[in-house]
Amino acid sequence: MSIGRQMLAALPGTSLSLRADWTRLFSAVWKPGRQLDTLRRAELRTRTEIRAAFERLAAEFDISGHEVDEAMAQVDDALSELTGEVEDDLAYDAEQADQY
Question: Residue 11: pLDDT band by 50, 70, 90 thresholds?
Fold first, then answer.
């Protein structure tokens, strides 16, 4: 007997991904390495945009560059916290895909 997606998703504590892990390995569409590169570029772009905003604010209100650097360290931590799990999963999937 097959459990439908809606029934399975309704079970407490159950998460349901859109694709099963094994299908990612055999799909021509799923490119975890490419997606990992895209994520890393997006993180870099985000850091650059935030630094530019901080530097504009610092220039306007005479805030030291050291303060901007300290704020950016917190931004780096926050971005790592936000995307770390996804990045780890993509890195693992890319490694697994390279083995097959």
Answer: low
- Give dist(CA 77, CA 72) in Å, integer: 9
Query: How far from the centroid of its chain's Cα atoms is residue 32's Cα?
Result: 12
Q: CB atoms < 10 A from the CB of 90, how many?
A: 21
Mean pLDDT, rounded, of the chain: 83
- Residue 13 has what DSSP assignment? T
* Residues 40, 34: Cα–Cα separation, whole Å: 10
43-50 contacts at long range (C-beta below 8 A, 24 or more positions apart): 43/79, 43/83, 46/79, 47/72, 47/75, 47/76, 47/79, 50/75
Distance CA 87, CA 89 (A): 5
The model's pTM is 0.68
Domain boundaries, the chain: 18-99
